[in-house]
Amino acid sequence: MFNDGRSKKVVFIAHCFLNQNSISDGTAIYPSAFRSLIDYFLSANIGIVQLPCPELFCLGLDRGDIHGADRSVVVENTRIRSEMKSKIHNVELIKLADYVVQQILEYKKHNFEIVGIIGANRSPTCGVDTTSNDNAEVNGMGLFINEISDQLSRENISIPMIGLKGNENIQEKLDQLLCQKTIVNNPKITI
């Protein structure tokens, strides 16, 4: 089954890396997407699965406050994190994580390689290495990535996760991710 032209390799990437228009006000770096990140995986013949954006889904494009961009990023992110922890939004966040894990399970069932999950560091929901809390960037995972990680653990599935922030060490981190998977013809990112 699936013995056609597909590579049977996928990477899951935070929504905002593929759609900067979805990110909280005042935090976009690019007009549309991290093109070099997308090109990196396409050059390696790895399909890209866009994670849903729980903040957009639960709080809307303005994240529930049209004055969000007036605050520093970590202060606004802390406010967003607090909103996302409310019972109604947390239930939706868990449903979105369920959706992602079901996709992963389906790919694994058919022997696809999940190269990794790439989150957005400092994000209150999608951070991997850092998140925002108490008006600061702190070590730890965002709420959504943490829920996905917990669900994968319950399924006994281990998938490498990396967090990116802006243009910091992107090439190095992606090379490390792909080296873990021993992918040949490692592409280079132009930033």
Task: For the structure shown, list the relevant keywords.
191 residues, alpha/beta, four-stranded parallel β-sheet, 7 helices, 6 strands, 40% helix, globular, disordered C terminus
Q: Walk across the major sheet and give the strand order.
A: 2-1-3-6
- Characterize the biggest β-sheet: 4 strands, parallel
Number of domains: 1
Mean pLDDT: 90
Q: Can you walk through the features of this model?
A:
This protein is an alpha/beta fold and 191 residues long. The chain has one domain. The protein is 40% helix and 15% strand. It contains seven helices and six strands, in the order βααβαααβββαβα. It has helices at residues 15-18, 35-43, 54-59, 73-84, 87-109, 143-154, 170-180; strands spanning 9-13, 47-50, 113-120, 130-133, 136-139, 161-164. Strands 2-1-3-6 form a four-stranded parallel sheet, with helices on both faces. A two-stranded antiparallel sheet has the order 4-5. A hairpin with a 2-residue loop joins β4 (130-133) and β5 (136-139). α5 (87-109) packs across α6. It is globular.
